[in-house]
Amino acid sequence: MVFTLPGAADRTAVIGATGTGKTVFGAWLLSKQRFDRRPWVAVDFKHEELWDMVGSPPMRSLKVGSMPGKRGLYHMEIQPWDDDALEDWLRRVWSHGNIGLFIDEVSLVPTRGAFSAILRQGRSLRIPVIACSQRPANVDREVWSEANYISVFRLDDVRDYKIIQGFTRDAAIDRPLPEHWSYWYDKKNFSSTVLRPVPNPSMIAENLREVAPRQFSFL
């Protein structure tokens, strides 16, 4: 089935209960991006094993507060006490532009203004975002309202479906699907598509190793 992948300035929200495959799907979307055109940073709150599978290189480690100086794929591990540093870093991303963000557990991102500005102005600043979360109720509404695409895996609370339906023109996204299948909602076309499971994490990690360039050009 053909569907539109997120572009260079799109925001994508991925939601699903634990174990449904939302992080793997988000990483699959990441593997389809152009690392030769901008740096992409995976902001990691939960020490995701998939990034260990990708390895370094090609995935470069980035300390909180440091900016990626070259195009390519980066990994930034966040600790619970890093809120202030992360907020400052997001402000610098907003000022710089042309940096992609992959954020798992986006509910843990500080909501002091910088991330909201990125979501609202990401298109003009060329800051694409892939944001994953377990529950929409725990996430700033702008993640959903500013998203160009919304991916919905199984949710364990019917109230979560109702929140998402408010941003998907009442698309029928609450019908049961097989495990690891998902709905893909395209806001521009008001269309909902059912997607089969993406490849397993090891295959996605291998693909990231292949597509993320080993030689980086300075920005």
Question: In a nutshell, what does this entry contain?
Answer:
With 219 residues, the chain is of the alpha/beta class. The chain contains 7 helices and 9 strands; from the N terminus they run βαβαββαβαβαβαββα.
What labels would you give this structure?
9 strands, 9-stranded mixed β-sheet, globular, 7 helices, 219 residues, Rossmann fold
Can you count the helices? Answer: 7
User: What kind of sheet is the major sheet?
Assistant: 9 strands, mixed
Give the spatial strand order of the biggest sheet. Answer: 3-4-2-5-6-1-7-8-9
Can you write the helix and strand succession as a string? EHEHEEHEHEHEHEEH
Number of domains: 1
The whole-number mean of residue pLDDT values reads 90
Architecture overview:
This protein is of the alpha/beta class and 219 residues long. The protein has a single domain (11-211), classed as Rossmann fold (3-Layer(aba) Sandwich), CATH 3.40.50.300. The chain has seven helices and nine strands; from the N terminus they run βαβαββαβαβαβαββα. The chain has a nine-stranded mixed β-sheet. Helix 1 runs parallel beside helix 7 (201-211) and helix 3 (83-96) runs parallel beside helix 4 (114-125). The radius of gyration is 16 Å and the shape is globular. The termini are far apart.
